[in-house]
Amino acid sequence: MMALKWGIVSAGRISHDFVTAVQTYPATDHKIVAVGARSFNSAKEFAEAHHIPKAYEGYEQLAKDKDVDIVYLGNLVTQHFEVSKLMLEHGKHVLCEKPFTLNEKQTRGLVEFARQKKLFLMEAVWSRCFPAYKELKRQLDSGAIGDVLFASVHFGQALQHVERLRALELGGSAILDLGVYMLEFQQYVFRGLRPIKIAVNGHLNNQNTDESAAAIITYPEGKMAVVSTSTRVLLPNEGIVVGTKGTIRMPDFWCPTQLITPTKTYEYELPKTTVPFIHKNSAGLAFEAEEARQCIKSGKIESSHMPHHESIELAQLMDLLRKEIGVVFPQDFE
Q1: Of 18, 49, 185, 261, which is the most exposed, with the fewest CB atoms less than 10 Å away?
Q2: Could you tell me how many helices (H) and strands (E) the chain has, helices first?
Q3: What is the pLDDT of residue 115?
Q4: Maximum CA pair distance of the chain?
Q5: Which residues, given as ranges, of the chain have pLDDT below 70?
Q6: pLDDT, tens only, 292-332
Q7: Which helix (H) or strand (E) holds 90?
């Protein structure tokens, strides 16, 4: 397989970090060949800053660009469904930033469409591709801490100044932006199990979107997860897994470089680059890009690290939490 050729949707902050991370790989494996943004000037400036050959206004031309194999979507969640579908319609594989879409209906629609097209589609829950997650799976599968009965994970940042996290029309939601990580972590720990009861609470801001949420998720066989998220305060931001023989801790669980087990502390280095990142440990975005390349190289249309059915499960959980707290998007009625 020749280099995987990427198109980038949006010239925003996360797209900057993604491109910078991907460019730590040799050009024989990954190439960024085009970027599309709402304004041509934004796309052009981004392309020049990152040495990308082509810049487009809007996303239609990017979708039609025959040089592009796969598209990374870093735009607003309110645009994910429509733009992902546009890319799939034009034969592009898609790596779409989390949360995948606004709700379960949209997520199911994207998954079904990608399967019809036989194209790779992955929700960019980058955490799952970090080496620490893979080691956590090995630890749990080996029974290193016995029968896992409890998971605790909390993710909060003081982000109320960020309008896209507050405004209903922008898909603002602590659950969707940060809570997706707390939910995917406990899902990863209790993979294959379905909750039998979920108790939810939270608070709305003055725009009727959730600024905090918490849930107790009860599973069969005495297993339970306690999760919380907030866009008002900094929370411990650590994932904890407790079994009958011990405890595993994962600091900075959404982008971990460390895993603390009862017998050993694992440390992981991130790819190196001289270009500064905007967000914490963003060099780790390279891991999900390489996962996409390996899947496409193998003819897969989904990743085992973040399979389609787990994206659907996440959407179901987020829908449930939003409903219990009272957050409704216009798209929920479409």
Answers
A1: 49
A2: 10, 14
A3: 98
A4: 57
A5: 1
A6: 999 999 999 999 999 999 999 999 999 999 999 999 999 99
A7: none
Whether 295 and 170 have beta carbons less than 8 Å apart is answered as: no
Q: Give, for 220, the enclosing helix (H) or strand (E).
A: none
CA distances from 325 to 130, 194, 198, 270 (A): 32, 21, 13, 37
**Left (φ > 0), alpha (ψ -120 to 50) or beta: where does 7 sit?**
beta
Give 306's DSSP letter: S
* DSSP-based helix, strand, coil % in the chain, nearest 5: 40, 25, 35
Quote the strand ranges of 15-173, DSSP E: 30-37, 54-57, 70-73, 93-97, 121-124, 148-156
Chain Cα centroid distance, residue 162: 19
CA distance 317 to 256: 23
pTM, rounded to two decimals: 0.97
| Residue 13 DSSP symbol | H
Chain centroid offset of residue 321 CA: 18
Integer Rg of the chain from CA: 19
Query: Would you state the structure tokens that stand for residue 303, as one six-digit string?
Result: 């990743």
Length of the chain: 334
Structure tokens at 78: 């309110």
Beta strands in the chain (DSSP E): 4-9, 30-37, 54-57, 70-73, 93-97, 121-124, 148-156, 197-204, 210-218, 224-230, 238-243, 246-251, 258-260, 265-267
- Tens digit of each residue's pLDDT (9 = 90 or more) over 85-108: 999 999 999 999 999 999 999 999
Looking at residue 169, its amino acid is E
Rounded to whole angstroms, how far apart are CA atoms 3 and 25? 10
